[in-house]
């Protein structure tokens, strides 16, 4: 069951989503944060996370499907250049701000 909560002036709404910088929805955001992670680390994390339900196909699913889609998205939407802040999230315990190139 969905719960509706009213927002008031001064409220902050944080939206997390894959492909959130796509042109058709990018205009809705006031502030954009891009979480950077190396492709291989992304594949490894995703495979480890999804191994319970994807089994031995988890790594190929992340490499061949999700990583391929991410590369198309980055080429078409160029999210990093549109971000207000870029955070390196390679180490969960030590994220840090990157300078935008």
Query: What is the overall number of helices?
Result: 4
DSSP summary, beta strand count: 3
Distance, first to last CA = 43 Å
* Outline: globular
Quaternary structure classification? single chain
* Sheet with most strands: 3 strands, mixed
Order of strands across the main sheet: 1-2-3
- Structural class estimated from helices and strands: alpha+beta
Order of helices and strands: HEHHHEE
Strand content: 5-15%
Stretches where pLDDT is under 50 for at least 5 consecutive residues are: none
Please tell me the overall pLDDT: 93
Rg over C-alpha atoms, rounded to the nearest angstrom: 16 Å
How many structural units, i.e. domains?
Answer: 1
Helix content: 40-55%
């Amino acid at each position: 069951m969905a719960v509706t909560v009213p927002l008031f002036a001064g409220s902050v709404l944080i939206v997390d989503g894959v492909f959130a910088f796509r042109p058709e929805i990018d205009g809705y955001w006031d502030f954009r944060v891009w979480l950077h992670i190396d492709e291989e680390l992304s594949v490894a994390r995703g495979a480890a996370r999804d191994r319970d339900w994807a089994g031995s196909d988890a790594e190929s699913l992340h490499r061949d499907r999700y990583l391929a889609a991410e590369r198309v998205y980055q080429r078409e939407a160029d999210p990093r250049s549109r971000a207000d802040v870029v955070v390196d999230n390679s180490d969960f315990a030590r994220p840090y701000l990157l300078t935008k190139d």
